């Protein structure tokens, strides 16, 4: 039939903080963990705040801040920050058209 493939991951050695744990998890998931976690954070905040235009603007801006901190750690790239800035501007336009 086929050969069984064994997935081999590096062992998490000498992880002493949350930042190192996030870097390890991002390395195992081929670099998508930080981006997905940031978007899930923003989507959850959007739903908690009421799912309207002001909630979208607030969640997008908060997601941009989280993405900036994760960029400093090397977990997300600058495209994620640019996406959240674009979403924040979109939320500002949405809020402006509603008034």
Notes on the protein architecture:
The chain is an all-alpha fold. It has a domain at 31-98. The chain is built from four helices and no strands. The chain starts with 17 loop residues before the first helix and ends with a helix. The mean pLDDT is 84.
Distance separating the two termini: 64 Å
Report the helical percentage.
over 70%
Count of helices? 4
Radius of gyration, whole Å? 17 Å
Q: Based on the structure, what is the oligomeric state of the protein chains?
A: single chain
How would a textbook summarize the main sheet?
none
**Runs with pLDDT <50, length 5+?**
none
Shape: elongated
Count the E strands. Answer: 0
Portion in strands: under 5%
Summed over residues and divided by their number, the pLDDT gives a mean of 84
Q: What is the succession of H and E elements? A: HHHH
Name the structural class. mainly alpha
């Amino acid at each position: 039939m086929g050969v069984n493939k064994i997935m081999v991951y590096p062992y998490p050695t000498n992880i002493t903080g949350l930042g190192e744990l996030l870097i390890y998890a991002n390395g195992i998931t081929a670099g998508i963990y930080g981006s997905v976690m940031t978007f899930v954070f923003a989507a959850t905040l959007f739903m908690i705040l009421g799912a309207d235009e002001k909630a979208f603007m607030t969640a997008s801006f908060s997601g941009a801040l989280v993405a900036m901190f994760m960029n400093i750690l090397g977990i997300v790239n600058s495209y994620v920050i640019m996406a959240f800035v674009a979403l924040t501007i979109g939320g500002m336009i949405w809020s402006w058209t509603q008034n």
